[in-house]
Amino acid sequence: MTQPLAFDARSSSGRVGAITFDKRLIGLTGLAIRGFLLSLVTFGIYRFWYITDLRRYFWNRTVIDGSPGEYVGRGKELFLGFLVALAVLIPIYAAIFVATLSVPSLAPFGSILSFAILFVLGQFAGYRGRRYRASRTLWRGIRLGQDGSAITYALMATGWALLTVVTLGLAFPFMRASLERYRITHTLIGSSRMDSSARGRSLLLPWLSFYAVVLLPVLGALFAFLTATDFTLPADLFVPKPGGKPSETIFNPAYAGTPVATYGTILVGTLGLTASLGFLLIPFYRARETRVFMNAASLGPVRLSSTLKARQFYWPYIVYLLSIIGLVVVLGLVIGGGAFLLQAKGPASGASWVIGLGLVVGYLGGALVFAVLYVRVITARLWAAVATTTTVADAEGLAAILASSRRVGSGLNEGLADALDVGGALEVGF
Amino acid sequence: MQHTGPVASPPVATGTYLDGLSARAHPVTLRLADRLEIDGAGTRLAWDLAGLAAGDTVPPLVRIGPRGSPARVEFADPGFADALAGRCPDLHRSDAAGAGGTWRLVLWSVAAGVSVLVLAIYGVPVIAGRLAPLVPNAIETRLGGAVEGQVGRLLGDPPVCDEPAARAVLDRLVRRMTRGGDTQGEPLVSVRRHPLANALTLPGARVLVLSDLIDKAESPDEFAGILAHELGHVAAHDPMRALLAAGGSSFLLSLVLGDLTGSTILIATGQAAISAGYSREAENAADAYAVTLMRRAGGDAAALATILERIAGDGDRGAVATFLRSHPMTRERAQRIRSLAGPGSAGRQILTGADWALLKGICRNVPVKSAQ
Ligand SMILES: [Zn+2]
Fold first, then answer.
1. Which of A8, A45, A194 to mutate to test the interface with B (most CBs of B within 10 A)?
2. In what order do the strands lie in the sheet with A67-71?
3. N- to C-terminal Cα separation, chain A
4. Is 0.85 exceeded by the ipTM?
5. B267 inside 8 A of chain A by CB
6. Residues near B217 by beta carbon (within 8 Å), at least 6 away in sequence
7. Is A213 inside a domain boundary?
8. Which of B16, B19, B45, B109 to mutate to test the interface with A (most CBs of A within 10 A)?
């Protein structure tokens, strides 16, 4: 139509393109309620259409440099993909089952074997799922895409996972960065290939915070405990529980009040405390990682720049947690009140039916509220946090993106991920 | 927009033209005349109004383009959007399933779910019944071992009772009862100390007797009657059938619920094994088998009815007896057993008094739990 467009990095004016997200979330609650209820009555089959609606909702409201994203996937594609995945998975499950039954030496490793197979398959499926989502996402009429080999990716992920285990987790940030580089460098916008300079060492510090918070205090408490016991644990520290089952033991009362008990209590307390602190660090790490990965991504002269703060990841979780606690308290009061009524009226009265009904309604209602809250608070706010803190540097370069003529992958790609239920398989974004 | 002059001029708006070939945004002027006219530097287009489709965007942003073409125009002008919508009735028609499509989808998936449920409840047991006798003995034996381990854990790992003299009596009794029978080889009868009066049959001809059953039995024939009943389950492949049915049903259910990681299947299978609720027909068949077996072995065929009633009476007094849950309608069963047995075998004893006394002490090898 016009003359070919070419990159001209020198003339780049350095214009910054904003990414905005409509945070009013109008209609999202209705979408979530409808999705939940229809999934319920359709034995979960509606979930493919629901997640498609959600993706369309979120992309439509994300405006990048003036133009909204566009999701053109169909629920039917995901459903067909799921059916195909079943056809692949059932023989695999059957094979694992028969193998562990007919080769007795394999039996103890049955669960490890199936975990290993499902892990590799899960990575494979996750990569293929991302390919599907990319191919159904458009911006300014240009279709995104992903090439690269899901097998390579799955093998890489497996190797890195083993290395992470061997290095007691130290390789984890390097694994994340390596996999992110593979994903991003195989992501295409039209015919332009993205690039990522993500490095594991930029994630090392946030990752080591887990060690500082969890591992060091535990090691300290363990050292104190061992010093207090002169590095020899009394063999009779735990004795069989009187009148208990053979496997049940209790703490030997003879040691109560001794340093062994004191430092043992400190050790156990430290473990519990640091474990929960470590749990609380997860959003911090995730936010840092997202920022590092965003800043590392580029498309020719166009770069992404993220100012994501950890607190923007904490806030949704805190709101969600508080809502859940509130809801559970209310439900508990209602159920407790019902039980009290039942006690007062005697079990023979019709109250037990009412309470049974109330429990079912409360359970379903609670699940509905959780589902809606999750989408509104966690999904939407995290999406908004990532989108609105990211800007496109040198947005002029975006004009150079050309559409690609490559074939569009089928929806079968993502079915396996859903069938395997790999960590939030039906993701909304990438 | 301008509405000046004697003749109302067509609505005009500014927007962005995207040719679908590159991401370059072309600033254009839109003019709604007989066709949608798009004017800009190097761009001069006119799109037929009838062929336009709008994308799913958040107002005021509108994205339109010719149906089936990657080219599109984006603009944010509510007045122009209204004018356009007035001229193109098909603007917001979606290609695929709308509301009707959703209802069709809901109906079909409910139908599919219900048919899978029906298959799981009615079809799977029939298929399992056909398949159970075909399972190779080696596999069934191995399964039985796995299930016994799981059942043991569910019961809290009760210790095995095998006081040698009592064990010898039990072995002799089992051998005598299975002589000429159709149980798969020699059944593995084991006794465990447990405060439940119950006996379970597991795949691979394993019979698990809980010690309270022996304590509750007032004659060797009562105990042997229960044992004979369990051997009836063995002969009919009931445990394997129940296991296959439970596994198959939960597999189907997890298929529908979309959880294929196998966790549901394993859990449900284990639970089915312990609560092994056989059908009423299977129970009656096992009772009839027990009566025949007791008569052939020279015992009191009606003693089974006596102990069933006694244990059921215990259950009424509040003790939790799982035996009851899987063996309901005790009175009816007892009557049927008595009528099958007839008066012929009444008063016979399958073991001598001395042997019975020995057998009663089978848990003597397990130290009684330390006093509370
Ligand atoms: Zn039975």
1. A45
2. A192-193, A187-189, A142-146, A137-139, A67-71, A62-64, A17-21, A390-393, A302-306, A297-299, A195-196
3. 33
4. no
5. no
6. B223, B226, B307
7. yes
8. B109
Domain, as residue range, for A280: 190-303
**In degrees rounded to 5, what are phi and psi of residue A145?**
-160, 170
Among A71, A76, A61, smallest CA distance to A22 is for A61
Q: Residue A122, exposed/middle/buried by CB under 10 A (0-12, 13-18, 19+)?
A: buried
Nearest-angstrom CA–CA distance, B114 and B77: 49
pLDDT score, position A294? 92
Residues of chain A where predicted confidence (pLDDT) is lower than 70:
1-13, 97-98, 100-108, 110, 231-257, 342, 345-352, 406-430
Q: Is the residue at A181 inside a domain? A: no
C-alpha span between B288 and B282 (Å, rounded): 10
Cβ-contact A298, A192 below 8 angstroms: no
Find where tokens 């739990």 sit. Answer: B369
Compute the Cα dihedral for A94, A95, A100, A103 and give only its sign.
positive
Q: How far is A242 from chain B (nearest CA, A)?
A: 7
> Which pair of structure tokens corresponds to residue B84?
């356009």
- Whether A246 sits inside 8 A of B159 (CB atoms) is yes
Interfacial B residues in 78-137 facing A (CB < 8 Å): 96-97, 102, 105-106, 109-110, 112-113, 116
Distance from Cα B229 to the centre of ligand 1, integer Å: 6
> Residue A10 domain-assigned?
no
Domains of chain B: 12-87 (2.30.29.30), 109-365 (no CATH)
| Least reliable range by pLDDT among A192-206, A337-351, B251-265, B317-331 | B317-331
- Residue B358, Cβ density class (10 Å: 0-12 exposed, 13-18 middle, ≥19 buried): buried
Distance CA A177, CA A173 (A): 6
For the cut 60, the answer to whether the pLDDT of residue B6 exceeds it is: no
Q: How far apart are CA A301 and CA A418, in angstroms?
A: 36
Contact B311, B323 (CB under 8 A): yes
Q: Per the structure, how many domains does chain A have?
A: 1
pTM: 0.74
Task: With respect to residue A281, please indicate whether it lies within any of the assigned structural domains.
Answer: yes
CB within 8 Å: B258 and A44: yes
Report which of residues A7 and B296 the model is more confident about: B296
